[in-house]
Design a protein that fits this description.
The complex is a heterodimer of chains A (406) and B (300).
Chain A lengths: L8 E4 L1 H11 L4 E3 L7 H12 L6 E3 L4 H13 L4 E5 L1 H6 L1 H9 L5 E6 L13 H4 L7 E4 L3 H18 L3 E6 L8 E4 L3 H7 L16 E2 L8 E2 L5 E2 L2 H30 L7 E4 L6 E6 L2 H14 L4 E6 L1 E3 L3 H7 L5 E6 L9 H10 L7 E6 L9 H14 L11 E2 L4
Parallel strand pairs in A: 2-3, 2-4, 4-5, 5-7, 6-7, 13-14, 13-16, 16-17, 17-18
Antiparallel strand pairs in A: 1-8, 6-15, 10-11, 12-14
Helix pairs in contact in A: 1-2, 1-7, 3-5, 7-9, 10-13, 11-12
Chain B lengths: L24 H13 L3 E5 L3 H6 E2 L2 E2 L5 E3 L5 H14 L6 E7 H6 L2 H9 L5 E6 L35 H6 L5 E6 L3 H13 L4 E6 L3 H4 L6 H10 L6 E4 L2 E4 L1 H9 L6 H5 L9 H21 L4
Parallel strand pairs in B: 1-4, 1-5, 5-6, 6-8, 7-8
Antiparallel strand pairs in B: 2-3, 7-9, 9-10
Helix pairs in contact in B: 1-7, 3-5
Classes of the chains: A alpha/beta (406), B alpha/beta (300).
Chain lengths: 406, 300
């Protein structure tokens, strides 16, 4: 549907886009601890609040663990909450990430992707958020600053619809500190898209309830004789919520398009997949670099397409199968490594394809760790090398190759 | 009118049949705390004996709204409750953080210190049973010198306990008080007073633990009284810097004599290996602190 609206193009870096999106989402409690490269986002939000441009409580916590604890408890009394972090901060939050998801609280977190120590490194890779993939959060990755802006706003729609927290991930420096034109949504339109938060449960002395009590493995009968869930049933419900959240994510993306004219009714971005024999898979800003690599390979007459993963959790298994159905070769670039195995997105792709008729060869390259520059030319060379390796007729390489000096 | 056993509210917020051990001082203290708050509170509780007391889903023994939160996060959870209520414009609700000494002196000190430094408007009550009792009595930062525990099983603890109220006073918060479960009306009065004060308020409650300290279930009150009568525990409050002795400690100060601290140790199995040198050391420590309190008290 064509939408008539005046655009408001501003030149923003990724952190400014995220901060502005949180403001437009009318967050009520912000708790954050500064960490490179997230820091300017935190500062911008505190400035909005101190200047009175955003009616919210800014809690300058003493740690990321506390940042998430503030968010979970504030969410439990009914406030819309936001936090942001990177790397070590996200790792330090790990325990509380489980609690936010376990308690089914719609917290939204911006993760400015950064490498994790030891040794110290402040530059970009995705090891931090990938390390948190099993905490029960929805994870959305952005390719550019417009997507950061739009994804944070959509994140609240999704989180509050399915009662699952959402992590919006974007690459440190590559996006966080790089200015791009961003079409900034108007407040009235955002208000129309995002109604105020209506919590499923709140803590209120007028109706005392005890939240997160010790819960046994088996269901247990309550005082009114009703059989209530055991711990395992609660975990099943969280898995079910993530499994079913695909529809909500697509719907949130579709309705976003109706109001703002940018279509997010997808789980990943596809580029020239119609006739592609070779598909490059990448996540975050790397997916944009992959498009440049595909251009170069197309010039040589090689039919290459790109699958840019947007939603990593829930992982869109059936959509991936559909998108890769014509591929003879899938080249997966990962900015993370599951030590002793392979890149996380490669494992997901393989898992999705198992048992389908798709018999494509898969090659996995680990790239860009700790901010190592990734040139489109390197993606091209790696793809060519993958094509050459097909002569060996090995569909599945046991371990990934690394684009580095060893 | 001062509260007494007759005019104390009959309303109960802790229901019968909870999971605390027989003779548990924590449940006695908590009962009076919630009475003083008249149920107009939201409680946050980290991993602790209080978690056990709150019950197992879907049944709870505590009739006030509560969130259970991970061990290290109590101060931050309280901050979040306050921030959320403020953002929503909800008033008249006291946010209470209720944690043990492990959750306060040790794993929770960072988030508590952060919250107090930010001067968030909540009450933090530490019930101090001087060890990690929920996991079966291991040493904490509050376990006294000479006490046997699961992780000081042979020699007893070789270090002094941490003076948590002093640490909290150093944060410049408006109200710090010490209490004992053996003096529930003193505790009740202090919670009542703290309720009217804005900012971070810290109350430390001595809660003897029969299975951990190895004394008979029937002796909880007696052990708590002995701690105060020997000066091992001193009951005081510091309201905006003004120090007052209260309750039994105030009476002892006026009468002028503490019982020897040895009497307190002899009643508890956890001190069975305490040495004469350690008793002497602790007696000197008690005497020095008592002198400090007498000098500092503005109400004698």
């Amino acid at each position: 549907m064509a939408v008539q609206r005046k655009s408001d193009i501003q030149i923003l870096d990724g952190n400014q886009a995220a901060a502005l999106a949180a403001k437009l989402s009318r967050v009520q409690v912000v708790a954050a601890y500064p960490i490179t490269p997230q820091t300017p986002l935190t500062e911008t939000l505190s400035q909005f609040i101190e200047q009175g441009d955003l009616q919210a409580e800014y809690v300058a916590v003493e740690s990321e663990h506390s940042a998430m604890a503030v968010c979970t408890s504030a969410s439990l009394v009914g406030a819309r909450t936001f936090t942001a972090t990177s790397s070590h901060g996200l790792a330090y939050m790990h325990e509380m990430l489980h609690w936010a998801a376990g308690a089914r609280l719609p917290v939204v977190l911006a993760c400015v992707n950064r490498a994790i120590g030891a040794p110290w490194n402040v530059l970009n890779d995705q090891q931090d958020s990938i390390s948190q993939r099993d905490t029960g959060w929805i994870q959305i990755y952005c390719r550019n600053n417009q997507e950061i802006m739009d994804s944070v706003i959509q994140a609240y729609r999704i989180a509050e619809s399915v009662s699952v927290p959402v992590m919006v991930c974007y690459d440190g420096y590559i996006l966080s500190h790089t200015e791009m034109p961003v079409d900034v949504p108007g407040q009235k339109d955002v208000d129309r898209y995002l109604p105020s938060y209506k919590p499923h449960t709140t803590l209120d002395p007028a109706n005392p309830k005890n939240y997160n009590l010790v819960t046994l493995a088996n269901p247990r009968v309550g005082v009114e004789g009703k059989l209530c869930h055991g711990y395992m049933e609660l975990r099943y419900l969280l898995q079910e919520a993530l499994q079913n959240s695909r529809e909500t994510i697509l719907q949130a993306g579709k309705e976003f398009n109706e109001i703002f004219g940018r279509d997010y009714a997808n789980m990943f971005w596809e580029d020239r997949e119609e006739d592609a024999e070779i598909m490059i898979v990448a996540m975050g800003s790397l997916a944009m670099e992959a498009i440049v690599a595909a251009d170069m390979l197309r010039e040589e007459g090689i039919k290459v397409g790109v699958l840019g993963l947007r939603v990593f959790r829930p992982f869109p298994k059936s959509d991936v199968v559909r998108a890769l159905r014509k591929s003879k070769l899938i080249v997966v670039f990962d900015k993370n490594i599951s030590y002793g195995s392979e890149g996380a997105t490669c494992s997901e792709i393989k898992s999705a394809l198992y048992g389908t008729y798709i018999n494509a060869a898969i090659r996995n390259y680990i790239v860009g760790l700790g901010g190592r520059d990734i040139k489109a030319r390197e993606l091209v060379d790696a793809t060519r090398k993958a094509i050459a390796s097909l002569k060996e007729t090995v569909l599945n390489a046991e371990y990934p190759e690394w684009i580095c000096q060893i | 009118m001062k509260v007494n056993a007759v005019n104390l509210t009959e309303q109960e917020y802790i229901l019968p049949g909870n999971r605390t051990c027989p003779g548990c001082a924590l449940s006695l203290a908590y009962r009076h705390i919630l009475k003083a708050l008249e149920g107009q509170c939201i409680v946050t509780v980290p991993a602790s004996c209080a978690t056990v007391m709150h019950g197992m889903y879907p049944i709870t023994a505590v009739n006030v709204p509560c969130v259970n939160t991970p061990f290290a996060s109590t101060g931050a959870s309280a901050t979040g409750l306050v921030a959320g209520l403020k953002a929503l414009g909800k008033k008249g609700i006291t946010v209470l953080a209720f944690a043990g000494d492990g959750g306060t002196h040790d794993i929770g000190i960072q988030s508590l210190s952060g919250a107090a430094e930010r001067q968030y408007d909540f009450m933090y009550i530490c019930y101090d049973n001087e060890g990690y009792m929920n996991t079966g009595n291991q040493r904490s930062g509050s376990t006294p010198l000479g006490a046997i525990s699961g992780t000081t099983p042979v020699l007893g603890k070789q270090q002094y306990h941490k003076d948590m109220p002093a640490i909290m006073e150093a944060h410049g918060i408006p109200y710090v008080a010490t209490c004992s479960a053996s003096y529930p009306l003193d505790l009740y009065e202090k919670v009542k007073k703290a309720k009217t004060i804005e900012g971070t308020r810290f109350i430390h409650v001595h809660t003897p633990c029969p299975p951990g300290w190895l004394f008979p279930f029937s002796d909880t009150i007696k052990i708590g009284e002995l701690a105060v009568e020997t000066g091992f525990v001193v009951l005081y409050e510091i309201e905006r810097g003004i120090f007052r002795l209260t309750s039994a400690s105030e009476s002892l100060a006026r009468k002028g004599a503490l019982r020897p601290v040895r009497e307190y140790f002899l009643q508890q199995g956890r001190f069975k290996t305490i040495t004469e040198e350690q008793i002497e050391e602790l007696q000197n420590w008690v005497n020095a602190r008592w002198k400090q309190c007498l000098n500092r008290a503005t109400n004698l």
